[in-house]
Write a structure and sequence with these properties.
Elements (H helix, E strand, L loop, with lengths): L6 E6 L6 H13 L3 E6 L1 H5 L7 H12 L7 H5 L9 E7 L1 H8 L6 H11 L4 E7 L7 H8 L4 E3 L2 E2 L10 E3 L4 H8 L13
Parallel strand pairs: 1-2, 1-3, 3-4, 4-5
Antiparallel strand pairs: 4-7, 6-7
Helix pairs in contact: 1-3, 5-7
């Protein structure tokens, strides 16, 4: 299998409403033989919401992967040359973290793990979840789409009439996108109906 013994970083940022779509993908990656290392933003570590508490989410990640979530920039930096990943996934990727990544700002564990993976020239897979994708963040998405080694999980408008600028990745395509990225290919089509 493509994922057997692959070391996959899995970053989560603060789009709490999509965790129920992301957690089953982590289960499948582990079941398919991947060694998944969770990496969490400060929002994931500290914000309780109607979708669950921060402590609950951290425990779920540890239970699913067998690894304590990476929660500091110092820990995440070790995914550079010292302890490289085969690929880094960020799912969900908020507009805030997306804009920082596109502009080389590294102020969270997820962004540091992503930067370290890019430095190692391993693939980075992004699953966006932002209400501003077709607004000011559109330029940042295009900048990342044009960046070598970055691959997008297919995305579409989740609610075009009530949230016309919102785009969310279809998490059903996350594993397919990871497998294609490990072969340096973009899973297609990138833009899809939701």
């Amino acid at each position: 299998m493509v994922l057997t013994d692959k070391k996959i970083g899995f970053g989560l940022t603060g789009s709490h409403c999509t965790y129920d779509q992301v957690f089953p993908v982590i289960d499948k990656l582990v079941a398919d033989g991947a060694d998944v290392y969770p990496v969490v933003s400060y929002t994931v570590q500290n914000v309780d919401s109607r979708f669950g508490t921060a402590a609950e989410h951290l425990q779920v990640l540890e239970d699913k992967t067998g690894h304590t979530p990476v929660s500091s920039i110092v820990e995440a930096e070790k995914f550079g040359p010292a302890n490289p990943l085969d690929a880094m996934v960020v799912a969900p990727l908020t507009g805030n973290s997306l804009s920082k990544l596109a502009n080389a700002i590294t102020d969270s564990p997820v962004l540091m793990a992503t930067k370290a993976t890019m430095r190692n020239q391993a693939p980075v897979i992004l699953a966006i979840s932002t209400n501003d994708a077709l607004g000011l963040n559109g330029v940042n998405i295009m900048r990342l789409m044009a960046t070598k080694g970055i691959y997008f999980v297919p995305f579409g408008q989740d609610n075009p009439f009530n949230k016309p600028n919102s785009l969310i990745a279809k998490m059903d395509y996350l594993q397919d996108t990871i497998e294609a990225a490990l072969e340096n290919k973009q899973f297609q089509p990138v833009i899809t109906t939701y």
